[in-house]
UniProtKB/TrEMBL annotation:
Phage integrase SAM-like domain span: 34-111
Protein name per UniProt: Phage integrase SAM-like domain-containing protein
One Pfam match: Phage_int_SAM_5
Length: 138
C-alpha cells in the first residue's frame, strides 16, 4: 500500500470513506500543494509573507537541484534515497550557480524535510482509513 501511495498508482482496494489516496506523490507536487495552502494563511494574516518567500525559494532550489543532479523536473517519493539530503546540501554549498552558506543551505534542507514529513502523514492517514498497514507483499 505504501508503494502505491509513493508511486501514485491506485491500489486494488475497495473504496472506503476517508482521505483520498495520494495522487502523483512527487516532491515538487507536494511543495506546490503546501505553498498553495500556505498562501491562504498569508492572505488571512496567519503567516508571514517573508516565510512564504522562503518556501518558494526552497522549492526553486530543489527544482534546480533535481534538474542539474538527477536530470529530472520532479521526483517520486519512492525515488528519494537516504542520501538525498546530503546530495542537496552539497549541491547548494558547492555546485549551485549561486552557492549558499552552510546555515542557509541547512534551512533549505530543513524545509525540504518538512515536505517529506507532510507526505508521510498523508500516507499514514490513508493506511489507517483503508486498514492496510503496509505489511503485505506489495
Amino acid at each position: 500500500m505504501v508503494k502505491h501511495a509513493f508511486t501514485g498508482k491506485a491500489p486494488n482496494v475497495a473504496k472506503k470513506e476517508g482521505p483520498e489516496p495520494v495522487k502523483e506523490a512527487t516532491l515538487l507536487n507536494t511543495f506546490d500543494e503546501f505553498i498553495k495552502g500556505f498562501a491562504k494563511l498569508v492572505q488571512n494574516k496567519k503567516r508571514s509573507d517573508g516565510t512564504m518567500r522562503h518556501w518558494r525559494t526552497t522549492r526553486g532550489k530543489v527544482f534546480d537541484f533535481l534538474v542539474n543532479h538527477y536530470k529530472k523536473k520532479d521526483i517520486y517519493f519512492a525515488e528519494i534515497r537516504p542520501s538525498f539530503g546530503d546530495e542537496l546540501y552539497e549541491y547548494l554549498t558547492l555546485d549551485a550557480g549561486s552557492k549558499l552558506s552552510e546555515p542557509t543551505a541547512k534551512g533549505h534542507i530543513k524545509r525540504k524535510l518538512g515536505i517529506v514529513k507532510r507526505i508521510r502523514k498523508q500516507i499514514d492517514k490513508f493506511e489507517l482509513t483503508t486498514g492496510d498497514i503496509g505489511l503485505g507483499t506489495n
